[in-house]
Amino acid sequence: MKYFLGIDVGALSTNAVILDVRREIVGYSIVQTGANSTEAAEETLEKALVMANIDRAKITSTVATGYGRISVPFAEKKVTEISCHALGAYYLYPDTGTVIDIGGQDSKVIRVGDGGKVLDFTMNDKCAAGTGRFLEVMAAKLRVSLDELGDLSLQASQEVQISSVCTVFAESEVVSLVAQNHPTEEIIRGLHRSIVNRIWSMVKMLGIRGAVTMSGGVAKNRGVVSLLEERLEQPIHVHTEPQIVGALGAALLALRLAQTAT
Predict the structure, then answer these.
(1) SS3 content of the chain, % helix, strand, coil (to 5)
(2) Which residue among 24, 118, 142, 251 is least crowded, i.e. fewest CB within 10 A of its CB?
(3) Which of 218, 166, 221 is nearest to 194 (CA)?
(4) Under the phi-then-psi rule, with left for phi > 0, alpha for psi from -120 to 50, and beta for the rest, what region is 252?
(5) 229 CB-near residues (< 8 Å, 6+ apart)
(6) Could you give the C-alpha distances from 106 to 28, 69, 126, 260, in angstroms and in order?
(7) What is the domain extent for residue 55?
(8) Domain at 51, CATH number
(9) Residue 12: count of CB within 10 angstroms of its CB
(10) pTM score, two decimals?
């Protein structure tokens, strides 16, 4: 049996997916990127191999993606994450026409055509506002864990408006709101609303095509997903492990690469 590997080196996490020749996921892994992208790629590969119960020699081809893809020396090919997220989302949900990817340091909206082809995209990579890093900073300031944000947001009966779009200024605004004794869950819901508003402005640029699939770590935040569904006026596909969508797309390209070579 031949196997195909996709590695997605992101700002906060590095993810791996292993596919077999039938295009089935047999192993995957998510690790923190940390200070060394190459070490993170090695670590996530080893963990994915353990899940797949195969050794490294069984990997036929490897494709790397993500901002740190250049740091994966064992990849035969390195490709943009835009194409990988589109392909991965289409594989999981064939009715996908729009992908919203909110990662650690940037966010993207991608229009997807038949077969997972990228038709158009827009991205915010100039500012951390509206990203996983933004939520990480705010969670620390509010002294709650990142995993708690979604549930706390859903408990809020109302929300506090966050006027600042810059992470630094929003942080100062949150400190002020805490001092004014605003409930934590209402502040969190306001922060989530500010993220949704930024994504909505990107969506409006491209328009919504077909079903919407969300990828990236922020897709695990039920508060953000709920508000985004409300704003888009339609449900959003979210995979059990939305962080592996890019790596999945890279693995599909690795399989395609091997088939082309034969």
Answers:
(1) 50, 25, 30
(2) 24
(3) 166
(4) alpha
(5) 235, 236
(6) 23, 16, 8, 32
(7) 3-126+198-261
(8) 3.30.420.40
(9) 17
(10) 0.91
